Amino acid sequence: MASVQKHERSKYKRASTVSTVDSEIDWEDSQHEGVKEDSFIDFFRKSNGPPQTVLLCLLLALSLGSTIGVLPAVVTDRYARIRHGYNGDEDCSFYDVDDRPMECTNGSNDAQNASAVASFVSNMLTFTTSSLMGSISDERGRKGILLLGQFLSLLGPLCLVLLQLFDTMSPNWYYACSACTGFVNWIAIALSTLSDIVPPKWRAASFGLLLAGFSCGFAFSPILALTLSHLGVSILSFSMLGGGFFFTLFCLPETLTPEIAQRAARDRNSIIVHNEPTCGKVKRRMMRPLRELSILNRNQLFRLLATLSFFSGIVSSADQSLLIYYLEDRLRFNDKDVSLLFVILGSLGILVQGVFLRPLNELMGEKSLLIFAFSCQTIVNLVYGFATVKAAVFMAVGLGSFGGLAFPTISAMKSYNVEEHEQGRIQGALYSVSSLASAVGPVSLRFIYYQTKGSKFPGPGSMFVFAAFLELIASLIACALPKDQTDSRKKLHDNPTLSTDEPSAMSYGSFSDSSDENDV
Asked: Where is this region: Disordered (predicted)?
């Protein structure tokens, strides 16, 4: 009986290999016939789904960015009052650092600790569930998972509003809701939505536009807070996310076709054993998140890309978390300097992701572009580590915008190396790796900081020198990527190896390329 099952599964694999190539040809011909001569912007503008998705990301960035300055002030004051007995008439944010009461200092420490715990929990949830949610979206559609992710994102801003309306409410409610957003990373689903519509040759550019929407939101969101109170900004943030939720509900189309959904369901059902005992069903369902992540181990290309995602995630998350504190402490950055830093980040992020990414990708190809991005990040972190003047940091931040090309490029490479019914699964798995890196990145660099802060050279900047070393390793790994699988300028049907080394039908439950018996 076992030999018969194995024979049937081998037949299914051979059939799946043929259908993979045929489906790629059919998909490209049927979905994009008549638009091959259009420019990318024309195609993107006329398409139904991608423009709405970018708009949603813009709303999310505006909402989150507008409360960046509000959240620390609100939760610090609340912790100071309910935990440390502060009863002053002025808010804790009223005081300068040197004049701040000890209760406010303790409240600030509590807020930072709670934020770190919430971030860690959220990243661990994302690592566990992101690929699973992506796989579910491959079967049941993108829109429902997007709505669930946006609903969870609404809870944090709602708690921030309630904190300012009820004096006895604990900020722990906010951080608990913030951690829950890790259950569904709807950005990964948004990338899958773009992959459903956009041809492979334009996916890197479309992913770049998605990130450009984020950059635009974060660049202009501080303007929203200039004329509003803390409560007003919080209400505005919640309202924008609420508007995005209803926009998705009523205006965003379902981009997953029924045919692709059926193929995804057929692949998952292929691992189900007839008359499976209850304990087997429980075990299979509990192990499903790991089975979904096993796509990263499908072939050498995916293993290399997962490693690159991990290195990139460690450095980018550490830079985002620690850079401002480091600059304020070492180079005496003030509020004006920090504001200028964010303006440079946002403006150049829009320009690089939205304008330069597509021509650079067409000129260099994904592999060379990835090497270029990691090389830029290597130089940037070296400058952070050795900088003694503010001007050097501002120039490094400008160059770092090109380092941001790494993530959409990696996402695009993976998207056109899997079948269309695996887009959600691969993007979710990619975000799982990034979330794990985001959890360990700041901790690892802080460890380097504490071990070397007393040394004369490079001193506290050694954590960024270490980050540059990681980016250098990533650049070398990128050189090892196979050229024929990392260049979307070649048509998929001219090179069938652009699919995968293993057909997807039996990839569930397989942690190695050749293991057939581990499917169940």
From this structure: 487-520
Q: What is the 3-state secondary structure (H, E, C) of 402-459?
A: HHCCHHHHHHHHHHCCCCHHHHHHHHHHHHHHHHHHHHHHHHHHHHHHHHHCCCCCCH
Q: Is residue 512 part of a domain?
A: no
Taking each continuous run of H as one helix and of E as one strand, the counts in the chain are: 20, 0
Alpha-carbon torsion, ordered 361, 367, 373, 376, to 10 deg: -120
DSSP 455-472: SSSSGGGHHHHHHHHHHH
| Count of beta carbons in the 10 Å neighbourhood of residue 384 | 26
Residue in 252, 298, 359 with CA at minimum distance from that of residue 507: 298
Give the structural domain span for 483.
50-505
- Could you give the C-alpha distances from 157 to 107, 176, 239, in angstroms and in order? 20, 12, 9
Return d(Cα 90, Cα 104) in angstroms, integer: 11
Q: Is 131 left (phi over 0), alpha (psi -120 to 50) or beta?
A: alpha
The one-letter code for the residue type at 162 is L
| Residues in the chain, pLDDT under 50 | 1-37, 491-520
pLDDT reported for residue 34 = 43
Residue 33 resides in a domain: no
Token readout for 341 is 């830093």
Domains of the chain: total: 1
The alpha carbon of 212 is separated from its chain's Cα centroid by a whole number of angstroms, namely 13
pLDDT in tens, 472-498: 999 999 998 887 777 766 644 444 444
Within a domain: 41: no
C-alpha–C-alpha distance, residues 143 and 409, integer Å: 24
- Tokens 């959409």 correspond to 408
Which CATH number is 272's domain given? 1.20.1250.20
Please name the residue that has the structure tokens 């990243």. Answer: 123
CB 248 within 8 A of CB 147: yes
Q: Which two tokens stand for residue 167?
A: 């004096």
The two structure tokens encoding residue 358:
């597509």
Mind giving me the DSSP string for 341-392? HHHHHHHHHHHIIIIIHHHHHHHHHHHHHHHHHHHHHHHHHHHHHH--SHHH
Helix, strand or coil, per DSSP, at residue 152: helix
- Residue whose C-alpha is closest to residue 276's, from 520, 10, 12, 6: 520
pTM confidence score:
0.69
**CA dist., res. 323 & res. 445, Å (int):** 11
Alpha carbon distance 138, 107 (integer Å):
44
Position 435 in a domain: yes
